[in-house]
Amino acid sequence: MHSESRIKRRLSRKIWVGSVPVGGDAPIAVQSMTNTDTCDVDATVAQIKRLQDAGADIVRVSVPDMDAAEAFGRIKQRAELPLVADIHFDYQIALRVAELGVDCLRINPGNIGREDRVKAVVEAARDRGIPIRIGVNAGSLEKDLQKKYGEPTPEALVESALRHVEHLDRLNFPDFKVSVKASDVFMAVEAYRLLARQIEQPLHLGITEAGGLRSGTVKSSVGLGMLLAEGIGDTIRISLAADPVEEIKVGFDILKSLHLRSRGINFIACPSCSRQNFDVVKTMNELEGRLDDLLVPLDVAVIGCVVNGPGEAKEAHVGLTGGTPNNLIYIDGKPAQKLTNDNLVDELEQLIRRKAAEKLEADAALILRS
């Protein structure tokens, strides 16, 4: 049971997105973005609730016009998570959602327009304690930077970001976070590395337009994994052409793999082979679906035979090792009981839920004692 991360995180300035701390010593926040029509308030609120149930810390909502701004106000009244308003071009939309209680403004000062308009947005944010997120994307670089560099590059992304940072610096507004996203993994990673050395603000990580569920998960895991392992990153968003709930699941899986966040079950499972004494793949598919609701951090090992099974099981809260004639269950690293293949998943699920309840009770008691 390995819970401590060896990663030394980059120390950044702490800001607050609603009730969620970002940067400093705060846990890395996981966020997603709604893909409903913002003017459909019921559908958007329902999706935010699904994201909350999946573990989202923050949700971003696109606000393209004033009708959407008014709808955002009604959404904000019903949502329990901090909401970021995604705004481009029209500074008046930013002013309106600030009045309506937005928790963070996602803007590019460069496309908001004149200095006085940027100042108006910053002053509204300052007066209400609202942080700003500067979002730079390789697909929408300024024309002069495209001409200067010939194509999107890490240096171009960082130069664009620093221009926007200078906007806010001139207005003495330090409470912001920055993203420099690209769909190319190496470009994004290098841009974040360069920027991390030049500003103190938190960094929001993402591989933009990463792809569908499988390919996007792979690209995001590779890119964000490289950065997070170097201590870079304070919030993450996994950009998938899929149900946004999957973005939250993948985000937490990445953080769990690096021991940066603990939420739900960390499965250790073999890929299976002819030595398996039960159907490992089928067992895992059923367990993942059934136990999706468990939020207690648990290590569960599901190993099909005795080659690696006992070793993995001894390091887990609950371990299953395939054996003949019976499979062996380990609880907290110690042999506990034997199970046949009949009703294996049902019985294993009950054991895992029982252990989760015990751990939840023990953790609560520990908190009370401290």
Q: What key phrases describe this protein's structure?
A:
single chain, about 375 residues, alpha/beta, eight-stranded parallel beta sheet, five-stranded mixed beta sheet, 15 strands, about 20% strand, elongated
Average residue-wise pLDDT: 94
* C-alpha termini separation: 22 Å
> How are the strands of the largest sheet arranged?
8-7-6-5-4-3-10-9
Radius of gyration: 23 Å
Low-confidence stretches: none
Overall, the morphology is elongated
Task: Report the sheet with the most strands, covering strand number, pairing sense and barrel closure.
Answer: 8 strands, parallel
Instruction: Report the sheet-strand fraction.
Output: 15-25%
Q: Work out the helix count.
A: 13
Q: What share of residues is helical?
A: 40-55%
The computed structural class is alpha/beta
The count of strands amounts to 15
Q: N-to-C SSE series?
A: EEEHEHEHEHHEHHEHEHEHEHEHEEEH
Function: Converts 2C-methyl-D-erythritol 2,4-cyclodiphosphate (ME-2,4cPP) into 1-hydroxy-2-methyl-2-(E)-butenyl 4-diphosphate.
Cofactor: [4Fe-4S] cluster
Binding site for [4Fe-4S] cluster: 270, 273, 305, 312
Family: Belongs to the IspG family.
Outline the secondary-structure elements.
Layout: E1 15-17, E2 20-22, E3 29-33, H1 41-54, E4 58-62, H2 66-78, E5 83-86, H3 91-99, E6 104-107, H4 109-112, H5 115-128, E7 132-137, H6 143-149, H7 154-170, E8 176-181, H8 185-196, E9 204-205, H9 213-229, E10 235-237, H10 244-257, E11 265-269, H11 280-290, E12 298-303, H12 309-313, E13 318-321, E14 327-331, E15 334-339, H13 344-369
Parallel strand pairs: 3-4, 3-10, 4-5, 5-6, 6-7, 7-8, 9-10, 11-12, 12-13
Antiparallel strand pairs: 1-2, 13-14, 14-15
Helix pairs in contact: 1-2, 1-10, 2-3, 3-5, 6-7, 7-8, 8-9, 9-10
